[in-house]
Amino acid sequence: xxxxxxxxxxxxxxxxxxxxxxxxxxxxxxxxxxxxxxxxxxxxxxxxxxxxxxxxxxxxxxxxxxxxxxxxxxxxxxxxxxxxxxxxxxxxxxxxxxxxxxxxxxxxxxxxxxxxxxxxxxxxxxxxxxxxxxxxx
Length: 137
What we know:
Mean pLDDT: 90
Structural class: mainly alpha
Largest sheet: none
Radius of gyration: 15 Å
Order of helices and strands: HHHHHHHH
Shape: globular
């Protein structure tokens, strides 16, 4: 099994396609303090084979729910890019999160999806309940 250091070294390789086993280390990098590593790790997670997208989304959402800020917002943004039901449920829940970056990541992710009555109503409600201009962006 690869270590986080091994995976970090491979992130710069455009041909690197991680397997499902690398997901915990990649999520640790997404949640870490290094913004460059977080961006590269996010791209790597999105390269994991499509057949595993539901498992990836479940794992990302689990990590996001447990994470503190700023990792929670980053993981929520990543979950939003995985267009499966698991991530949709988290995006709807995250609209009322205490962390503004998490709320914003959820709103952006939902805004990028095909509109449905549920999504439209959730976004309208979040906008109506927004208490700051920052939440209305």
